[in-house]
From TrEMBL:
The keyword Ribosomal protein does not apply. Keywords: Membrane, Transmembrane, Transmembrane helix. The chain crosses the membrane at residues 20-44, 64-86, 107-139, 159-178, 185-210, 241-262. It comes from Actinocatenispora rupis. This is ABC transporter permease. PANTHER family: INTEGRAL MEMBRANE PROTEIN-RELATED (PTHR37305), MEMBRANE PROTEIN (PTHR37305:SF1). It comes from the Bacteria.
Amino acid sequence: MIRAIRSELLKVRTTSLWWLILIGVVAFTAVAIAFNMLATYVTIHPGTVGPQQGGPDSLLTSVTGLYTSGQYAGTLLAMVFGILIFTNEFFHQTATATFLATPKRTLVIGAKLIVAVIVGVVIALITTVLAVGSGLIFLSTQHADLYLGNAEVLKSIGLNWLAFAIWAVFGLGIGALLRSQILSVILGLVAMLIGQTVVQVVLALLSSYFHVKWLMKIAYYLPSSASSIMTSPHGADGFEWWAGALILLAYGAVAAVIGTVITRQRDIS
């Protein structure tokens, strides 16, 4: 297994994939940090931009959002990496050589899975360093509580790392299922960026039309919503952080199992 993991890490280091992902992570995190700084500023100075309620709880939520900036785009990039780490084998026609060198396909998938998790955590580390570092500077200039020793904030940061790792595994499952690099990336991004938004809008309309509030809660079972819930100090609408974590873990586990089963049974050539 160690040799297989080293081989997968070498593939990552010797391609342009890692620095393209890095550029995307830094750029999107910077945008998210700017947006969350504005939201936190409004919370610290209520009434600055329209009516706004201040208070310790709202400030804690804003600071947590600031310290976990970049989660939405970052998790999508982690998913894309998970897709590419598998589909690159077929795009560059190296799959046959890889499985000949390591005939046990489960071992290869396991190595790719571990590398996907490692890279997911590294992406989370980068976003955390950028978000927490700039967040501390910003909060200091506003003479606000840093909340850095707060248990809820630390828990949210840790769970944010878990979210990145799970999304990378989720992407690996998508790549194993479809194998086509372009198709997997397009469908993955469309489903997460557009598909989830469409589902949320439809649920909102149905909930409003039939006056049934519980329909809106179905949206919390979507991957992105589960990610947000698990890193929120107070959850969302009755959903605790652990519920979001379990939902997201279920997505990752199902994707990993399906991807492994399909790869073991499908003809590689």
